[in-house]
Each structure stands twice: as structure tokens, then as C-alpha cells.
Amino acid sequence: MTTVVLGSASPSRLQILRSGGIEPFVLVSTADENELKHQLPAGPTLVEQLAAAKAADVAHQLCISHPTLAADALVIGCDSMLLTATGELVGKPLTVERTIAHWQQVRGTSAELLTGHTVIRLTDGAEATASAVTRTVVHFSTPTDDDIRRYAESGEPLYCAGAFTLEALGGWFIDAIEGDPSNVIGLSLPTLRRLAAQVGLNATSLWNTVTSPSAEEK
């Protein structure tokens, strides 16, 4: 059976895969994101290039440290950023002050959450790669300055792309979205299904936590 390898430390991405019937092998990318951002051209395609770099790094690690798994594996690399109405790409704010400043700019506006996805299928030394960027429109509400400060000081948005979550405290301040909600959380299952097909895998063949009912239960 093909082993799904998640090249991310993100708890949200891990939970998406688990909810989708997959318990992945987690191997975190060691690629230097900050250095890559300086080397790569800015723009919406940046998330795809970062996802590709992460996936390639993890595939290399897997081949060296876990050659048995690398004989039949699907490596997943992702990167998310928020494209604001003013054209700014926002990653993780990292500090309370940056989070507050960002929210004061985006409240009452709409923006696009971009997630770059790259999959690399490894089969006995051979590689097949597919990539895509998925966009989901996010409509922000108008939280007060006090709301924004309390949210920032909760610590939740500091390490989230675009300084918000959809599925937790940040959900209070999102009026609506247009598109795939799993993409906003960090990994689009529909996109993953399409990319897996491009490298010769059916999504349901990757399920490893789903059991069929026995004949007696049917």
C-alpha cells in the first residue's frame, strides 16, 4: 500500500488528512522558507514554488532515512499565504503587533487564501510530480480594535497564514468563504484527489483508517 507522507508540522493539515481517512507518516521539511522567499519571485505562484521545494526536500529525506517507505510513497508539500485586496502576500505574522496591524487592514475586506500543493509519487526510485494552487475567497467581518487585540493575544493567529483560522477562534470574524474550506485550513482534499490522480493514484486507495463493514454487518 502506498504510504502518504505529510511534509508539514501543521496540526491542521494532519487533522484534515485524518478526517479524510488517512493516517500519514509525518516528515517535516527542512527547507529554509525565509531563504527561499528571498530567492523566488514574489507573487501568487510563490506558494506553489515553496510547496514544491518542501516536497522535494521531504522526498530526498525519505529516500535516505526511510528507503523502505520510499519504495511506494506519496509525499505531500504545502504552503499557504493570504493575498489581500491590496495585493500583499501575508504569511505567518509571528508577533502580536504584526497580527493587530494586519487585522486592522483586512477587516471588512475580502482576500484570497492561496495554498500551493505539490505531490511526489515515489516508486522504486522513480518520481512523478504534480502541483497546483488552490484559491478560496475569504470575507472578513469588522471586529473592533479590542476584538482584534484579544484575538492576537490569544496566540492562535501568530503562526497561521494570513493571521487567522477558520475552524477555531478566528471563525468568529469570518463572515463567509467562497470555495473549498479545507484549503483555508491548509490542505485542499479535492486538490489532493486531483493531483494524486495525475500521478496514477486513486484517492480512496490511500485511505488507511477506513474499514469496510463485515458481511455480518451488511
From TrEMBL:
GO terms for cellular component: cytoplasm. It is found in: Cytoplasm. Its EC number is 3.6.1.9. Its cofactor is a divalent metal cation. The keyword Hydrolase applies. It comes from the Bacteria. InterPro entries: ITPase-like_fam, Maf-like. Signal peptide: none annotated. NCBIfam families: maf (TIGR00172). This is Nucleoside triphosphate pyrophosphatase. It comes from Lawsonella clevelandensis.
